[in-house]
Write a structure and sequence with these properties.
The chain has 527 residues and is α+β, with helices and mostly antiparallel strands. 31% of the residues lie in helices and 30% in strands. The chain has four domains: 234 residues, no CATH class; 98 residues, Immunoglobulins (Immunoglobulin-like, Sandwich), CATH 2.60.40.10; 83 residues, Immunoglobulin-like, CATH 2.60.40; 104 residues, Sandwich (Immunoglobulin-like), CATH 2.60.40. It has 13 helices and 26 strands.
Length: 527
C-alpha cells in the first residue's frame, strides 16, 4: 500500500488499520460502538470530500478557457466523476442490501423513529453469503468488488497524462492488497477480508472504500485544476475524539489501555498543534497522531474517563478543543459452568454444557469429568461442551465437572439418570377407544419420548398381542420388533367394533440401556 502524502488521508488510513486490528479482538458491545463511531467519522469525511469536489469542475472549466490546448482537461471531468459516482453507488448498494436483508435498524419504542442501531449488527452469515460464498457454494460478490476497484483505479489513471502517471499513483488511495491472502493461505481476497465478519464491522470497511474513491476523485480533479493553472487547497477543520481500546472488559488488577486519536470530517494539514489529555494529564502523541491512555483497574464496576483533544487550525490559527467520554467495565475473575438444559445428565445422549471464565481465553479453559457418573467431556466448534455419562448416580452421588482456567478452579455436581421411559403409542393413541380404520392403517407400536429436551430415539424390541374378538376365544401371539408380525397383522386386519386388543409386556431399548426395559401394556377397544 502506498503511503498518501495528504495528512487527512493518512489519518483515514490509520483509522482503517485500527479498525482491522479491532476485528482480531473478541467483539463486545463497546467494540461494536467503536465500529459505529469510526463509520460515522468516515461518513462525515465523505460528505466533506463531496462538498470540496463539488466546486472543482467550474474552476477547471474556467481555467481551461485560457488556451485551446487545455480543453482536454475539462473534457476529463465528467468521466472521472461518473466513474467515481458509479463505483460509490455500487458499494453502497451492497451495504444497503445487507442491511435490508437483516431487517434494517432498530425502531425507538417512544418516538417510532429508526435509530442508528442495526438489528443484524452481529450477523456474519449475511456478509459471508453476500461477499464470500452462499450456502449452495456459489461465489459472492467479493471478488467482483476487487475487480471493480482495480478497474476503477485503471480508469482514473487513464485520465492522467503519461508523464505524470508515476507521480500521481502516490495520490491514488484505492488500493487492493492481492498478496497477503496468498501468504496466509486464505482461499481468496474476499475470504480473507469478509469471511464470518459481523455486519457492523464490514460496513466501515465499505465506507473506507467509498472514502478512498472520493479521495482519489479529489486527487484527480486537483490534478486537472493544476494542469489548467488553478491552485486548489482544501482545508479541514472539524474533528472528533476516538478511543480504540485493547479490551472494553478487563479484570480487577489488569491495566486498561486505549489509543486516542482524532477523526477528521474535513482534515488538517498535519498533526502539529494537536494535544490530547485525560483528566488534565497530557499524553504524548506518536508520529501517527495517536496517544495511548492506560489506567490500572483497582475496583470492579463501570468506569469512565473523558479525553480532550486540542488542535490549532492550520489556516486560521484558531485553537479548538473536542471532548468525549468513554467507558469500560471491570470485573472479577470467575468460572461459570451452566448446563444448557437442566442440572441432570442423561445416559446415552450428548448433554450440552456451557463453560466460561471471565477474563480468561477460552483456549485456556480445561474441563475434566469426575465423580460417580463416569463418562467424558468434549469441546464443540462453537465453544460449548458435550458431556457423555455411563451410569446412573444413587442418592448422594454425583457426576462432577472440574474446571481449571489460568489459575482459577471450579467444580459443579450433576445427577445422572437413565433416559425416562417413553410412552408406547399406536399412531397418536395411548390406549382407550380406537377406530378400526385407524388400527388397520397403523404399522406397529412407536415409543414416544414426551417432554424430553434431548435428541434421543428409543426402539421397541418386542411385545405380546392379545386379541379378544367379540364372543370368541382369546388369541395370543408374540411379536418381535416394533412392526406388526404375521399373527398380529392378521388379528388387526379382522378387527371389528366391540373387539379388544391388549399389547402386553412391551420391551424397549433406549440409548445407554444395557438391556431392554419393560414399558408395561396398552389396551384398546375397537369402535
Amino acid at each position: 500500500m502506498s503511503i498518501p502524502k495528504e495528512p487527512r488521508q493518512l489519518m483515514i488510513n490509520i483509522m482503517y488499520l485500527v479498525l482491522t486490528a479491532l476485528l482480531a479482538l473478541n467483539v463486545s458491545a463497546e467494540i461494536f460502538n467503536a465500529f459505529k463511531l469510526v463509520d460515522k467519522g468516515l461518513v462525515e469525511s465523505n460528505k466533506s470530500l463531496d462538498e470540496a469536489n463539488k466546486g472543482l469542475p467550474k474552476l477547471i472549466r474556467d481555467g481551461a478557457k485560457k488556451r485551446e490546448s487545455l480543453a482536454t482537461y475539462a473534457e476529463r471531468i465528467d468521466p472521472i466523476r461518473d466513474a467515481s459516482s458509479e463505483m460509490s453507488s455500487y458499494l453502497q448498494g451492497i451495504v444497503d442490501d445487507m442491511i435490508e436483508k437483516t431487517q434494517g435498524y432498530v425502531i425507538d419504542d417512544e418516538t417510532g423513529q429508526e435509530t442508528d442501531e442495526l438489528r443484524g449488527k452481529k450477523d456474519f452469515d449475511i456478509t459471508t453469503r453476500t461477499l464470500v460464498m452462499d450456502h449452495e457454494g456459489n461465489p459472492g460478490v467479493g471478488e467482483e468488488i476487487k475487480a471493480k476497484l482495480l478497474a476503477y483505479k485503471e480508469t482514473i489513471m487513464s485520465y492522467i497524462d503519461d508523464e505524470d502517471k508515476k507521480a500521481f499513483a502516490n495520490n491514488v488511495t484505492v488500493q487492493v492488497d492481492d498478496e497477503t491472502w496468498r501468504r496466509k493461505d486464505k482461499k481468496s481476497w474476499s475470504h480473507m477480508n469478509f469471511d464470518h465478519m459481523p455486519l457492523q464491522a464490514v460496513i466501515p470497511i465499505f465506507t473506507k472504500y467509498i472514502n478512498d474513491i472520493k479521495s482519489t476523485e479529489s486527487a484527480a480533479l486537483n490534478y486537472l485544476a493544476n494542469e489548467v493553472g488553478t491552485d486548489v487547497k482544501v482545508t479541514f477543520d472539524e474533528f472528533a475524539v476516538v478511543s480504540a481500546p485493547e479490551k472494553s472488559y478487563i479484570i480487577k488488577g489488569e491495566q486498561y489501555k486505549a489509543d486516542l486519536f482524532l477523526t477528521a470530517s474535513a482534515g488538517s494539514d498535519s498533526n502539529t498543534g494537536v494535544s490530547i489529555s485525560v483528566g488534565g494529564r497530557n499524553l504524548p502523541l506518536n508520529k501517527e497522531g495517536k496517544a495511548t491512555f492506560t489506567q490500572t483497574a483497582s475496583s470492579t464496576g463501570q468506569k469512565s474517563y473523558t479525553a480532550t483533544a486540542t488542535i490549532t487550525n492550520p489556516v486560521t490559527g484558531e485553537k479548538k478543543s473536542y471532548k468525549e467520554t468513554f467507558s469500560y467495565e471491570v470485573g472479577e475473575r470467575s468460572v461459570a459452568i451452566s448446563p444448557t438444559n437442566m442440572n441432570v445428565f442423561y445416559i446415552g445422549v450428548n448433554n450440552p454444557v456451557e463453560i466460561s471464565a471471565a477474563g480468561v481465553n477460552s483456549n485456556k479453559i480445561n474441563p475434566t469429568m469426575g465423580g460417580k457418573g463416569g463418562g467424558s467431556i468434549t469441546k464443540n466448534g462453537d465453544g460449548t461442551y458435550n458431556v457423555k455419562v455411563t451410569r446412573p448416580t444413587l442418592k448422594g452421588e454425583f457426576a462432577t465437572i472440574n474446571v481449571s482456567a489460568d489459575g482459577l478452579n471450579a467444580s459443579k455436581n450433576f445427577r445422572v439418570k437413565r433416559i425416562p421411559d417413553p410412552t408406547p403409542m399406536i399412531g397418536k393413541n395411548r390406549g382407550g377407544s380406537i377406530k378400526s380404520g385407524q388400527l388397520k392403517i397403523s404399522k406397529g407400536i412407536f415409543p414416544v419420548l414426551q417432554n424430553f429436551d434431548f435428541d434421543a430415539k428409543c426402539d421397541i424390541v418386542g411385545f405380546t398381542t392379545l386379541f379378544a374378538a367379540k364372543r370368541k376365544d382369546l388369541e395370543i401371539s408374540k411379536n418381535p420388533g416394533w412392526k406388526w408380525g404375521t399373527d398380529s397383522k392378521r388379528f388387526i386386519d379382522k378387527a371389528k367394533p366391540g373387539d379388544r386388543f391388549v399389547f402386553d409386556n412391551i420391551k424397549c431399548k433406549c440409548p445407554g440401556d444395557p438391556a431392554p426395559r419393560d414399558l408395561g401394556n396398552i389396551s384398546f377397544g375397537v369402535k
